Amino acid sequence: MLSEGTWREISRCISCGACNEGCSLFHASERKESLGPRSRINIVRAINTKVAQLSINSIEHLYLCGSCTVCNKYCPLNIDIAGLMIRIREELIRAGYVPPYNIARMRRNIEVNDHPWDSWDKGKWIQVRRSARPKKHLFFAGCWTTRSQDMANSAYMVAKKVVKDDLGLLESAEPCCGYPLKIAGHVDAYKEVLMRARSKIEGFEDIVTPCISCKESFKESGLSSHYLLEMVPEDLEAIKRRSGKAALIGSCRDSFTDKARNILEIAGYDVVDLPDWCCMDCGFSLAYTISQDLMKSVASKIMETASDLGADMLVIVDPFSYYLFSSIEGGKIEIRDIYSILLDSFRL
Ligand code: SF4
Ligand code: SF4
């Protein structure tokens, strides 16, 4: 079932369980072994050696991994657990296994509706007045950003200031870059959707996006694309000093998390360090597609942890994470996106 290379990696695992310590699903479930990475590896091992059969539950379990890579840092054998999970999904699909129903539905939606959901108007977030002249730069919101009107608007305002030019917008016609298909293991479908998206945005010289997955997908397709946070200048000067304790849910790239942290510190916030398992980014949107309740429980646990550590605000970088945390009712902590902090505290 698995390729030789993938099986070789799986076989290196000594089942020590150290990786569980990095996993948000493991911690949010009060350290339930069956939600940690070691059990995902053990499931694949058992199936490949024919000790067990692949069931709907075990396939779902493989799709719950959010590819955040935190567990990789804990593995004494340097196994790329996050990368392995994506490869395994890919190889299972090639071997003819069917992904969980909700993932198949997401694929259909991306291919038919150009976003991962059954219905949604992606232009709904736009509150801004636009000029009619042709633009060099395209502000590409990304599917999940469009679900959070406030984050989409603050990111757009920051992009305008950073680019120092008008930005083109595709509104409801913005395509999906296809990235969720890539991490779901649907490599061929991903390439097709990406090429289709590319053809829909031709004519712009540069793409600016608050979604790192969109940025990387378009870069892979040969377009010039930029991650918005990366474009924010380093030498910021606060126009208004803030106070308070802010916990940060950063990006899947350490350098961008460091940048967001720097922004908060220059703005005057005390940054509260969260345990590294308190991580959430767009890779978890697959897990959210399978179980919204599970992912809401993870977000609630992270909010509770931040609050217990004295934070009065949770600042979020990733658009999917912002959507998820904002949807938690009755949370005791304020949720902010990094772009609204930039607009409040700096002259860009
Ligand atoms: S990559 Fe992240 S979500 Fe996946 S097993 Fe590792 S820590 Fe858990
Ligand atoms: S930390 Fe590495 S060796 Fe230990 S169980 Fe996890 S993947 Fe296997």
UniProtKB/TrEMBL annotation:
Any one GO molecular-function label of the UniProt entry: 4 iron, 4 sulfur cluster binding
Entry keywords, A to Z: 4Fe-4S, Iron, Iron-sulfur, Metal-binding, Oxidoreductase
Gene3D superfamilies per UniProt: Alpha-helical ferredoxin (1.10.1060.10)
InterPro entries, sorted: 4Fe4S_Fe-S-bd, 4Fe4S_Fe_S_CS, Cys_rich_dom, HdrC_iron-sulfur_subunit, Helical_ferredxn
All residue ranges annotated as the Cysteine-rich domain in the record: 138-218, 257-320
Domain 4Fe-4S ferredoxin-type: 9-79
GO cellular component terms given for this protein: plasma membrane
Protein name: (Fe-S)-binding protein
Family as reported in the entry's similarity comment: Belongs to the HdrC family.
Keyword Secreted tagged: no
One Pfam family hit: CCG
